[in-house]
Amino acid sequence: MNTATRHLLLGLALTLLAAPAWAQSDIVFQVDMNAAIDNCAFTPGEDVVSVPGSFNGFDTSADPLSDDGTNGDMTAGDGVYATTLSLEDDSTYQYKFWASEPLGWESDQDTGSGNRELTVDGPETLPVADFFKADGIPDLCGSEIETYEVVFQVDMSVQISMGNFDPEQDVVVVAGELNGWNTTADTLVQDPFDPDIYVGLVTADLLVPSTQPYKYIIGEPGDTAPDGWENDPNKTFEVTGDETDQSGNGIPEVILPVRFFNNAGPDDFLDAPATITFNVDLGTAFQLLADEGEIPANAAATDFTSEINGLYINGPIAGASNADEIEDWASWGPDQLGDIESRALADPDGDNIYTITYEYDAGTMRNLSGKFGTDGYDNEAAGFNDHRFFIDPGTQTINVVFGCMRQDDGTFEDDNGPGGEPVYDPYALIDNTATPPTCIFVESGGENDDKGTAVEGTGVVPATAALRGSYPNPFAGTTTFEYAVPESGPVHVAVYDLVGRRVAVLVDAVQTADTYRVTFDAAGLASGVYVAQLRTGGTVLSRRLTVVN
């Protein structure tokens, strides 16, 4: 080997040794705190805002932001706080902003986890974000802060019996806005009279009046990032200002009642295995796509897609089955959730009914949340508007219409779709008065259908099918008539001329039992006699209409 070759190889080796194990890029985080400053919820120079995330273990003290103008594009003292972090390229991180109490954590972002999300593909200055609270920034100007003693009590007996909590190794702590959601500050101890109950007293300065969110957490002693958080939503207690000082030490108390961890008592867990098949009617999404040419591609409806290639399930309802290694929410998106085979539903018949079957072990919680998304997108409903599923032991089939969100009481709502808009509502017909409540896909005729002929249910369930005369008749322009559907099923209402040619389709959908009013617009038809026809449940009824132009 000659000298030149040796020098070349030595230089290459030194270069490789000096190179970092992975490339990193500088990311500038920026958040506008002016709304909080104006509402006296954040005091510059005293309060702190930070950016906890998966890059720092969601540590609220790790990466504070400053308003000194040294980061980002803003100037000092303008109320926009910023910091620069070096993060690994080609990596996806979740994060959210945190500020000193009473603000605490941001809430209700657009992803299932409630966090903001960032994929690093080079240096970037992120747009200035508004510090986000679901209920808005509280106006604290003129409000009072008072010191309270809050007594927390949680029954851990179910978690102990399920093997989720070991009193010899684990601890249960309480975190909330009253302690900055600190996961180590306030550890509860066993009640000497009932060792299954853990109690703790937290002294905190609280806004009066206010609603205080909190959760219990299972973890190991000193664990700053425990996995055992209670399920969403946050638990809360009220501070009214009328609380009394029961201990006589000059500090009023709030004594919370004993409740089970996760609000889950013995009856809230499966006592035997379950096999659950989910059938999801995706007709609402396909119909929206056909009508509009695109559907939302995130829960905020800020992005859109013009195709549907599959359907995926997300949330604890999937994670509890142990079908994959993700216990809870997977990250949304075609390259995240859309790449998890165990969460992909199938449509073997090509009828837009997608299905998946999961096995659940005895001991699984029976009340679980979940959500569906086309191609892995979070596009079934707005952020944190999830289905609630109650599973039973044995074999069970749960039928879902995409966009019809099942509530805790078994009823449905479809008026809080992506972006908070009822985008699937024209194609989903809900009957919450039925036993059990129902939601069915209709091509048109949903509660807010404005796509053509107006159809309105009256709430009167008939004994037999009927087609009643129109008013006015004869008519010019429009006329209205009623038809009665005695039981749920396909309904077809059309208008024909006297030689049998169909001139208009007023209704072609599955409808629930009801008496409906339909308005027919005869614009463009010649004067003459026409026939309105109702077909439902094997019954065919006709009425004559006379158009006069």
Note down, in words, how this protein is organized:
The chain is mainly beta. It contains five helices and 39 strands. A hairpin with a 4-residue loop joins strand 35 and strand 36. The longest helix is centred in the first third of the chain and has 16 residues. The chain is globular, with a radius of gyration of 30 Å. The termini are far apart.
Uncertain stretches of 5 or more adjacent residues = 2-20, 445-452
End-to-end C-alpha gap:
102 Å
Look at the helices and sheets and give the structural class.
Answer: mainly beta
Helix content class: under 10%
Characterize the main sheet. Answer: 5 strands, mixed
Average pLDDT works out at 87
Beta-strand residue fraction: 35-45%
* Overall outline: globular
State the helix count. 5
Number of strands: 39
List the helices and strands and how they pair.
Elements: H1 3-18, E1 24-32, H2 34-38, E2 49-50, E3 80-88, E4 92-95, E5 98-99, E6 104-105, E7 116-119, E8 124-125, E9 129-130, E10 144-155, H3 157-161, E11 171-176, E12 189-191, E13 194-208, E14 210-219, E15 228-229, E16 235-239, E17 253-255, E18 259-260, E19 274-281, H4 283-292, E20 295-296, E21 304-305, E22 311-314, H5 316-319, E23 344-345, E24 353-360, E25 367-374, E26 387-390, E27 394-401, E28 405-406, E29 412-413, E30 428-431, E31 438-441, E32 455-457, E33 466-467, E34 478-485, E35 489-497, E36 502-511, E37 514-521, E38 528-536, E39 539-547
